[in-house]
Amino acid sequence: MEETRHRNVEFFRLESGESAATSLYDEPTSYHQTAVFTQLPSSQSLRRRRGESGHAGPAGWEEEEGDRATAGFLKPREWDPNTPLRMLPLSMEQKRNTRKQRQEKQRNIGCWESWQQSQRTSRRRLRESLANKLRDLQPWKAVLHQIEGKFGSGVMSYFTFLRCLVYLNLLNVLVITGMVIVPITVYERNSTVRQREATCKLNDSFLDLFSGMGFLGRSSLFYGFYTRRSLDSACLNIPLLFLLSVGVVLLVNLVWVVVRTVNGYKLKWMMGNRYKMTKSYKIFCGWDFCIQVPDSAALRHSNIRNDLKVDLEEERFLQRESQRTVQQWVLLYFMRAVLNLVVFVLLSGAFYLIYFATQRSQRYQQAKSGWILNLFMEYLPSITITLINFLLPFIFCKIVKFEDYSVANKVNITLVRSIFLKLASLAMFLFFMYQSVRTAQQNSKSPTCEKQCWENTIGQEMYKLLVFDFLASLGNTILVAYPRKQLVERCSWRLVQMIGKDQFLIPLNVLDIVYSQTVSWVGLFFCPLLPLLNLVKMLALFYIRKFHLFRNCAPVRRMFRASSSSVLFYFMLLLGLLMSLAALGIHFVEFKPSRACGPFQEQERVLDVATVCIQSLPNATRPVLLYLVSEAFAIPLILTEIILLTFYMSIYRANCKTIERLKDRLVMEGYDKRFLVNKLSAPLQKYERRLRTDISKGSDSEDIHSWQGVTDLQDFEPVLSRGVSVESEEDEGRSLAVMSTQNDT
Amino acid sequence: MGTSASKLPKDLLSEYQELTFLTKQEILLAHRKFTELLSREERQFPSSRVSMEKILSLPELKCNPFRQRICLVFSTSENKDGSLSFEDFLDLLSAFSDSATPEIKSHYAFRIFDFDDDGTLDRADLEKLVNCLTGDTDETRLSAEEMRQLISNILEESDIDKDGTVNLSEFQHVISRSPDFVGSFRIIL
Fold first, then answer.
1. Which of A41, A150, A365, A539 could serve as a FRET partner for A461 with CA atoms 20 to 30 Å apart?
2. pLDDT value for B101
3. From which residue to which does any coiled coil extend (chain B) (predicted)?
4. Residue A236, number of CB atoms within 10 A of its CB
5. Which residue is closest to A665 within chain B, CA to CA?
């Protein structure tokens, strides 16, 4: 029974949507300009201002009337006396009046309540001023404003993302300093490091700054430095602190990234496929009011125009797609298959190149062929990876043009390929490193001082990746993009003009910083101060990118939405973090820590430190901890999670259904409203005609008011009682919005 | 010039802080900018108005395609010429400020987009709105066919009660789901 009724309503709504183009959209132009319509509460909230000065013509009397009605029943309904005055959409004078009214009302109420109200106000003001002070403390506020004004909010979202990562790295550095570095410096007495220094020959040079060897290799930058020192009880020792700080950093970062991704996803979901409102967004939220430069304004115009045209094009593309013949489909799929094969070949070629570079670099013995060659061989893997990451995305951009996807899909597919490339190349590099470590562990017969500590080697590789990536982006900005821009501006050859200025492609730039953040996560265990390095890098990168943007770049032709992009950014970050977690997990399970260096030299496995600590705990706590890690605890935990999830899912479904119902009811109310307005306006028009003849005869306005009273109270009493339901339409709209925001828990 | 800050009495300043979303510094800055637009004699009177042309010459509004609508919406002038008093100017900045609530912003956005001031966005309003966005010259405008398709699409999406126009609550419903709106509906002096 319920089902059929629901379907009926659905059908009704569909029908109204279909017939919209023909009859319904022609009629309203007359309907919403009728006099009765202007008296509906929903339209009156808007006309309060217009009511201040009378309009000429027959509408004049009704404006006054409208104003009185506003004062009578609309204000108390709309403005809750507790909302701050500034939140009312009124002019300053009206706000003053409202305040006066409120104060009078306050005098009427009791002493206690008025005191409470004033307390509430002052608390709110304090909170606001504090929030303002805090906001002023954020760095780069002015720069971000400038960027936003010149290039729009899409580009700014890249820079805010960068700033977020700076905060994150700062937090990581603080955690590591607090948990490891400070205890070590406090308890610094042991001299194991110095002993080792004595046995090894020392040839430090400034080149160590790039290779991470020599004095840098022995410093607190790398894993090898953190040996078991005088701070050595069962549950408070350097290895445990080291492990704990790495765990805390990764956990905090995971939580942070997941929260951010989920928040972004929530917003995206709300605008998502379920309720298609993309075109409305583009129209209603299309203009960026921050823009102050004529060039950017013109650009924005053309951006919006192109965007809309692309959208309309896409609609036609979908139509065309549905009309493709079988032969065309086959051809297209063949083409796509071939191109995907090309991409695959490119990727595997890239991975082989990385493998080759890693092998060469590992096998290369420090010969006496000059420091340049030495350094080059040291950096060979980093150079290869950076070059591959720099070149292949451009090739992907070219390839995707032949695949005949829709515009949005083109961007997404290029992005997915680039993400895969970046993360996979890093993963491959790690894999090869691990492999060479394993072979070295199996036949470790040649213990030189550096080779023994393979954790340090991995840390050094990560260090080199980070350093080289930074140098590459610095070099790209100063040595490639800047001359290119000068060339384009000075030289008018066709070839040069065809190349054009560099464009600030947001997704690829974001990919760069995501990559560097991933490197810092992967290397965290082997090089605990990598976050510090990354922090410095990000800080420098902010200024480099700013310089690049202002000096070298032509504005981007394609529009980029701030909201959709930030979800993507955090999703990429999440992928990077998961990858580094996986790498670290494999490391913990598969590999023995090296005997020669580092905090875990006495343990068989890294996690044994924790086991030792648990063993030393008093008897009461041990079973509890053991229970927490056992299956007996895991199963109830999973069950509880399942129950919670089911609960939320059912709430979600119910909310979805309610939204549908409310929508249907809104449509019905809309019909009712139109019907009533049409019914009402017929006698009103008749009366207007009579009024005009009366005015020409010279009757006064008292007559009008008396007529109003008569019509309101007698003739249309049944109609007015229905009017309540018309009013409720507005409330429903609001509750619909509330529902849909609530629905994402 | 330097004395302009002291021209604003302290109690008035705190009242403005209460009634708008602006901070003290922003109000003082707005006052300085506003007095720069006034002539020497006009500065004597606190209620003097600045004509729409002068307001539109501000760099913050110069490039905005909705600049005239903004002035008309915020003007409390008797003769509807879009001229702003200082308090109107503060209202404008308050609605466009960082800390203004989405409700306020969407309310004013609706009024700005409602070109004929009739309380709903009908087809004519939407057409004007789209023209403002794409640029209002013959070569930048969308073709009639594209415009028709676009407006039908918009109405299909946002006109929930299917009466052929978008009213305030429908508009706010759409806006409430757009995270970009609050960020982009801003003018900072």
1. A539
2. 85
3. none
4. 11
5. B161
Question: Residue A290 in contact with residue A148, Cβ under 8 Å?
Answer: yes
Q: Does A316 touch chain B (CB under 8 A)?
A: no
| Residues of B with Cβ-Cβ distance to A671 under 8 angstroms | 161-162
Closest by CA to B61, choosing from B27, B26, B96, is: B96
User: CB distance A309–B142 less than 8 Å?
Assistant: yes
Q: How far apart are CA A132 and CA B16, in angstroms?
A: 16
- Cβ burial, residue A179 (10 Å; 0-12/13-18/19+): middle
Nearest to A279 among B119, B150, B181 (CB): B150
Select the residue from B29, B69, B114, B167 to test the A interface by mutation, using most A Cβ atoms within 10 A: B167
Of B129, B158, B183, the CB nearest to A562: B183
- CB interface of A with B, residues 156-215, below 8 Å: none
Q: CB under 8 Å to A650, separation ≥6 — which residues?
A: none
> Measured in whole angstroms, how far is the alpha carbon of residue A467 from the centre of its chain?
27
**pLDDT > 90? residue A678:** no
> What are the helix and strand counts (H, E) for chain A?
32, 2
Tell me, what's the pLDDT at A739? 52
d(CA A75, CA A252): 48
The span from the CA of A238 to the CA of B14, in Å, is 56
CA-closest candidate to residue B172, choices A435, A734, A109, A112: A734
How many residues are listed for chain B in this entry?
A: 189
Q: Is the dihedral of CA A402, A408, A411, A417 positive or negative?
A: negative
pTM, entire model? 0.68
Q: Give backbone dihedrals phi and psi of A232, rounded to 5 degrees, phi first.
A: -145, 70
Say whether A235 sits in a helix, a strand or coil: coil
Question: Pseudo-torsion of CA A453, A454, A456, A461, nearest 10°?
Answer: 150
A126-162, pLDDT tens digit by residue? 887 787 778 777 778 778 877 776 776 677 788 888 9
d(CA A636, CA B42): 77
Q: Is A285 close to B158, i.e. CB distance below 8 A? A: no
Kindly list the distances between the CA atom of residue B123 and the CA atoms of A25, A34, A135, A446, A470, in Å, as whole numbers in the listed order: 9, 17, 42, 82, 53
CA distance B9 to B27: 12
Give the up-direction half-sphere exposure of residue B140: CA atoms within 13 A in the CB hemisphere: 17
Closest CB to A674 among B120, B134, B163: B163
CB contact under 8 A, A43 and B18: no
The full set of domains in chain B, from first to last, is 11-96 (1.10.238.10), 102-185 (1.10.238.10)
User: Which residue in chain A is spatially nearest to B67 when comparing CA positions?
Assistant: A289
Residues 246-275, chain A, touching B (beta carbon < 8 A): 267, 270-271, 275
Distance in angstroms (rounded) separating the CA atoms of residues A159 and A144: 7
Q: Does the structure show a pLDDT above 80 at A453?
A: no
C-alpha torsion sign, points A547, A550, A553, A559? positive
The sign of the dihedral angle between the CA atoms of A230, A235, A236, A240 is: positive
Q: How far apart are the first and last CA of chain A?
A: 31
Helices (H) and strands (E) in chain B — how many of each? 12, 2
> At a CB cut-off of 8 Å and minimum separation 6, what does A375 contact?
A207, A210, A211
Which residues of chain B have a CB within 8 Å of the CB of A294? 62-63
